[in-house]
């Protein structure tokens, strides 16, 4: 039934030959005149009159007594030719669009006023009228006719009802109804609801693709289909980019940890590697970053004994060399620093007057900021726990420089 309403709107859009914005305020008057011209035809057709109970106006339980209402002076006619008596003063006071229709001069003074509300089921029209009279809508009606009520509240400019529909439809989105709601949200300029639908479609596209709603959309609005597919594509590439950034950040964090371990090994020693002038075995239990520290110790031991060295093309030595250079670039106390080659690297850079190249500088900056970010984003105790947990996860072998 919702799709009938959407189809109805599509038809109107084609009639108005104004793409994409037929429901904008400007076009509502077109819509209104369309309904007016229809009303003349309606008058000649046989219609089913309905005897309204007091409750049609939704006044039971409120202070207003339906008996206070004047005689109905207008009829709302639905697409099934159901005639619902109503009061022009009330309709006009709630909806400026209905007011407009009511105020238009009639062709025949004697003919009775008829306002067709078509494209939605009878009961949706009744629920709409009930809201106009009482500003209320039951949960049950919202559940059944939320989509229609959204369309009606938009076309007839009833903002309170529109807000309520947007909110409730947003809470009732399912795989089955999401494409219908999405189309209507777009037609009714309900941007938040539209975005909510888009996200649901993007996250469950495999399932949504098989729904009737999606097939209907493909047949009736290929432009919107394209918009949705583009949104899904952009979401996916955004996710990919975020993941890549996160991985990079992890790498910089590992490097920053390696820098800490390097200083700690060269200053106080750790398990099997330490400064030459320090007693082995003294204070050398595994430290809190042992997985990184141990990898680094193995690398240092290799570096000290390797026969091929950096110039012989040894990749492990080259990696160690780069870690030492990285340390030197970050070190702010080269005179008292105990890390091998720290001062030599600094001197060499000064002598050659050669500034570090841009990529290297960027790397240094990222490693420094990774450390700052991680120490800011975690409270101290949490950070200590975190470090304990990652102990066994990544060794120095995961570094690629
Ligand atoms: Zn250590
Ligand atoms: Zn080597
Ligand atoms: Zn240093």
Automatic annotation (TrEMBL):
A GO cellular component annotated for this chain's UniProt record is: nucleus
Alphabetical keyword list: Metal-binding, Ubl conjugation pathway, Zinc, Zinc-finger
Q: Which residues form the BTB domain?
A: 72-141
Write out the ranges of the annotated region (Disordered).
Answer: 381-401
Pfam families per record: BTB (PF00651), zf-TAZ (PF02135)
Q: Does the keyword Metal-binding apply?
A: yes
Enumerate the GO terms in the molecular function aspect.
calmodulin binding; zinc ion binding
CDD domains in alphabetical order: BACK
Residue ranges annotated as compositionally biased, kind Basic and acidic residues, are: 382-392
Q: Zinc-finger: is it a keyword of this entry? A: yes
The source's superkingdom equals Eukaryota
Q: Name one GO biological process term.
A: response to hormone
Pathway per the UniProt entry:
Protein modification; protein ubiquitination
What PROSITE patterns does the annotation carry? BTB
What protein does this entry describe?
BTB and TAZ domain protein 2
Q: Which organism is it from?
A: Prunus dulcis
């Amino acid at each position: 039934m919702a799709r009938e309403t959407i189809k109805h709107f599509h038809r109107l859009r084609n009639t108005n030959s104004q793409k994409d914005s037929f429901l904008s305020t400007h076009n509502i008057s077109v819509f209104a005149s369309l309904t007016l011209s229809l009303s003349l035809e309606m008058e000649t057709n046989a219609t089913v009159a309905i005897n309204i109970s007091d409750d049609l106006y939704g006044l039971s339980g409120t202070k207003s007594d339906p008996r206070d209402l004047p005689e109905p002076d207008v009829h709302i006619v639905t697409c099934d030719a159901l005639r619902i008596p109503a009061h022009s003063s009330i309709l006009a006071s709630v909806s400026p669009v209905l007011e407009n229709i009511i105020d238009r001069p009639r062709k025949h003074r004697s003919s009775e006023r008829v306002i067709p509300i078509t494209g939605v089921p009878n009961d949706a029209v009744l629920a709409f009228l009930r809201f106009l009279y009482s500003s209320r809508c039951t949960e049950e009606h919202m559940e059944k006719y939320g989509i229609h009520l959204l369309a009606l509240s938009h076309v007839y400019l009833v903002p309170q009802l529109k807000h309520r529909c947007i909110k409730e439809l947003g809470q009732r989105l399912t795989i089955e109804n999401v494409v219908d709601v999405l189309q209507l949200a777009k037609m009714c300029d309900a941007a938040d609801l539209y975005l909510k639908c888009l996200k649901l479609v993007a996250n469950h596209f495999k399932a949504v693709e098989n729904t009737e709603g999606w097939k209907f959309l493909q047949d009736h609005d290929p432009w919107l289909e394209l918009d949705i597919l583009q949104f899904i594509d952009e979401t996916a590439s955004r996710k990919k980019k975020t993941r890549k950034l996160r991985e990079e950040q992890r790498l910089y964090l590992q490097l920053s940890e390696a820098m800490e371990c390097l200083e700690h090994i060269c200053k106080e020693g750790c398990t099997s590697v330490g400064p030459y002038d320090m007693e082995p075995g003294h204070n050398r239990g595994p430290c809190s970053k042992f997985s990184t520290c141990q990898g680094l110790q193995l690398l240092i031991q290799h570096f000290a004994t390797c026969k091929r060295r950096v110039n012989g093309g040894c990749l492990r030595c080259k990696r160690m060399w780069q870690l030492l250079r990285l340390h030197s670039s970050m070190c702010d106390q080269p005179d008292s620093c105990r890390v091998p080659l720290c001062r030599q690297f600094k001197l060499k850079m000064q002598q050659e007057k050669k500034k570090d190249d841009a990529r290297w500088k960027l790397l240094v900056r990222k490693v420094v900021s990774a450390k700052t970010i991680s120490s800011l984003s975690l409270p101290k105790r949490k950070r200590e726990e975190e470090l304990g947990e990652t102990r066994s996860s990544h060794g120095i072998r995961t570094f690629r420089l």
